[in-house]
Amino acid sequence: MIELSRRLSERSCFNLMEIGKLKRTGLFLVYVFAVYMVFPDNVYAMHIMEGFLPFNWAAFWWIAMVPFVIAGVRSIRKTVKLHPNLKMLLGMAGAFAFVLSALKIPSVTGSCSHPTGVGLGTMLFGPTAMTVLGMIVLIFQALLLAHGGITTLGANTFSMGVVGPLVAYGIYKGLKKLGAPQWLSIFMAATLGNLMTYVTTSIQLGLAFPAATGGIMASILKFMGIFAFTQVPLAISEGLLTVMVFNILNAYSKRELQVLTAFTGKAISTLKGGVKA
After folding, report:
1. Which residues are paired to 112 by β-bridges?
2. What is the 3-state secondary structure (H, E, C) of 13-79?
3. 101 and 113 Cβ atoms separated by less than 8 Å
4. pLDDT tens for residues 133-157?
5. Rounded to an integer, what distance in angstroms lies between the CA atom of residue 47 and that of residue 103?
6. 97-115: b or e for each residue (b if 16 or more CB lie within 10 Å)?
């Protein structure tokens, strides 16, 4: 009798779980259908695809990107020259950005969203160094994954490798000055850096393709609305992941981190010869 009651109880719980899953699936389908009704237009992606931008805008973003790349190359040279042992950490920051930004997650109306991964490298090595790493990541993705493009490399680098890192760095340093906890500063920097990347991409597309009704601003708001459904939760997830990675680095690479701005609050030490044991 007791065994029968137990089995009935387990079956009841199982049925309730199945009903809950069906409800969640139904709500998700309704959500997707509603979004398709609101945004029934073309396919867009977080990285602007090859040949999508008019020549004048593609050239403009290439020119706007170049000064930051030059500054980034100088920053990386200085860091590697003074501390050769940081090469591995620098490579890890680039790999982190490559893996995260390659995770294309389907969004609404056929678009896709993804994390950017630039917050981690920005807080470790500074925003201009992340510009160079971001550009390298985007080149590999354009050539190997058909994600983005060479003609649109300037625009994609400017959004993901310039604006995103600058915002992340500013948020991080600002919150640290205000006395915020380390984890909160890292979380907010990575999250807002991600969000500003998608905002910049929306502005780039809005400038290149103004709406027939409402002009540039209407077009920007439309693109932002398309990305926002998946990009906002992704940005929060990236913030949490970045905090976790920082905690791991703090546990296993503490010696390397001791010379970095993110943990010392000072410029990278000019002491040559690498990280001291």
Report:
1. 45, 106
2. HHHHHHHHHHHHHHHHHHHHHHHHHHCCCCCCECCCCCCCCCHHHHHHHHHHHHHHHHHHHHHHHHH
3. no
4. 999 999 988 888 877 889 999 999 9
5. 12
6. bbebbbebeebbbebbbbb
Note the residue count of the chain: 277
Structure tokens at 186: 């890292």
Q: How far is CA 37 from CA 23, 34, 40, 41, in A?
A: 21, 5, 6, 9
* Residue type for position 64: A
pLDDT digits (tens, 9 = 90+) for 159-179: 999 999 999 999 999 999 999
- Report the alpha-carbon distance of residue 171 to residue 271 in Å, rounded: 28
Using an 8 Å Cβ cutoff, are 234 and 251 in contact? no
Q: What pTM, to 2 d.p., does this model score?
A: 0.76
The CA–CA distances, whole Å, from 218 to 84, 179, 202, 223, 224 equal 49, 39, 11, 9, 10
Torsion 9-13-15-16 (CA) sign: positive
